[in-house]
Write a structure and sequence with these properties.
69 residues, membrane, 74% helix, mainly alpha, transmembrane, transmembrane helix
């Protein structure tokens, strides 16, 4: 599994937890509010994780990814 695939799974889990947490905190909210919030959190987490991975690769001097599986 590629590192970006692992990042997407982690971001999806984080977004799901955030959406469920908001649904628990605001039980009278419209159904799409926690869904949109969870998607926004997942997108932010994914972008942050991928940026951090790229920054670490650049800092190590590895400009091209060796993991092609």
């Amino acid at each position: 599994m590629k590192p970006t695939e692992k990042a997407s799974i982690g971001a999806a889990i984080g977004g799901l937890i955030a959406g469920l947490g908001l649904a628990w905190l605001l039980p009278d909210a419209v159904w799409w509010v926690p869904v949109v919030f969870g998607c926004l959190v997942a997108g932010g987490l994914y972008g942050g994780i991928v940026k951090q991975m790229a920054d670490e690769r650049i800092a190590d001097g590895d400009l091209f990814s060796k993991d092609k599986s």
